[in-house]
Specification:
4-stranded mixed sheet; Rna Polymerase Sigma Factor, Chain: A; 7-stranded parallel sheet; 11 strands; binds magnesium ion; 3 domains
């Protein structure tokens, strides 16, 4: 007699965002494999309530509920409740909260010893050393959902780490790969939000347009795979079919490919590396030929070199890089800084920052706050009012 595989208990943090909704698609497609036991959202009460009803979720929380509205029945509120749900008895905690706001619940899940499937690269960038130390102490595993890092994880499975010579992250180049450089100052948020290949949330879409996203991903790869920065490269690949590749010391290259669809890395992470049937669309390489790869133009996309510099500097520099960028993206969408000012603002924050303690959450949060204040002070007026 065969027994059904026990369902994996899933907690979903950031349930109503782009990754969260796609994680719900995956859970709904495989009800015999996954059970959603906890769900946390930012402020979208109606969407969270719908998820709670659809999946019969035991515990839900809104981190920032609308104070003038009543909470859905049984729904908890606040960051402490979010952290309690993150620490529930689960097989996998999926982190899909945008940006640095994910750090406390991510650490709560890690401290509880869960497998943490994370789409939030910002947490690893701002506190890579802290996150890794806490994961090692609790025996927690960190599984990447970010498509490039999922690709690298897939390429590296079963390989001896010492046989790796280089990791190469691919980047679509975003919507401005061919836009004349002398028009970058006039780029609008609407233009930056139109990504050519991936359908993603607004923060990561603007990061893709500046290529700050790839800069963050270089640092993320450094922490996830213990790879020195000198062995992490970036290639433009406009159609996003090759999601990243690994070069080995014998000359072999292993790449992971697929039609761009985040449900594939989400399902793989939730299922702890097991390949579930029919998750993403079928890919026939003859339909996408020829594949094009280009070097990164450092003048067009200075973000990648800046990230590398912040990563090499280490300590809290990646935290400053991340927080200044988050705040600059907010300023850009509020018309308080131009598109071509985002990366220089982050560079200026890195230059102005002094010292701090990267080994504690308080130290990380203090640096994060300092960088945000720095960018806010430098983007106090709208571009039009200057
Ligand atoms: Mg990515």
């Amino acid at each position: 007699m065969t027994y059904p595989t026990p369902r994996r208990r899933v907690v979903l943090l950031g349930a109503t965002g782009s990754i969260g909704r796609q994680a719900c698609d995956v859970i709904a497609k495989f009800p015999d494999r996954f059970e959603l036991v906890g769900a946390v959202a930012g402020r979208d009460a109606a969407a969270l309530e719908a998820i709670a009803t659809r999946f019969g979720v035991a515990r839900t929380a809104l981190v920032h509920p609308d104070p003038s509205a009543t909470l859905p029945e049984g729904c908890e509120s606040g960051m402490d409740a979010a952290c309690e749900i993150a620490a529930m008895d689960a097989d996998v905690v999926c982190v899909a909260i945008t940006g640095a706001a994910a750090i406390r619940p991510t650490l709560a899940a890690i401290d509880a010893g869960a497998s943490v499937a994370t789409a939030t690269k910002e947490v690893l960038v701002m506190a890579g050393e802290l996150v890794k130390a806490r994961a090692a102490a609790a025996g927690a595993r960190i599984i990447p959902i970010d498509s490039e890092h999922s690709a690298l994880w897939q390429c590296l499975r079963g390989e001896d780490p010492s046989s790796v010579s280089r990791l190469v992250l691919t980047a679509s180049g975003g919507p401005f790969l061919k836009r004349p450089l002398d028009t970058f100052a006039t780029i609008t948020p609407a233009e930056a939000l139109a990504h050519p290949t991936w359908n993603m949330g607004p923060k990561v879409t603007i990061d893709s347009a500046t290529m700050m996203n790839k800069g963050l991903e270089v640092i993320e790869a450094h922490f996830l795979f213990d790879t020195p920065y000198a062995s992490i490269d970036v290639s433009i690949h406009p159609t996003s079919i090759v999601h990243s590749w690994v070069e080995f010391r014998d000359g072999a290259v292993v790449a992971q490919m697929g039609v761009p669809d985040m449900r594939v890395p989400i399902a793989l992470a939730l299922a702890d590396g097991e390949r579930l049937p029919g998750v993403g669309p079928h890919l026939d390489l003859r339909d996408v030929s020829p594949l094009e790869f280009l070097p990164v133009d450092g003048e067009r996309f200075p973000a990648v070199a800046l990230a590398r510099m912040a990563g090499e500097r280490g300590g809290l520099a990646p935290c400053i890089f991340n927080a200044a960028n988050e705040e600059a993206v907010t300023a850009f969408t509020a018309a308080k800084c131009r598109f071509d000012e985002i990366v220089p603002l982050v560079g200026a924050a890195l230059e102005a920052f002094g010292e701090g303690d990267a080994s504690t959450l308080d130290g990380v949060l203090a640096a994060d706050g300092w960088a945000r204040d720095f960018v806010r002070a430098n983007t106090a007026e709208t571009v039009a009012a200057r």
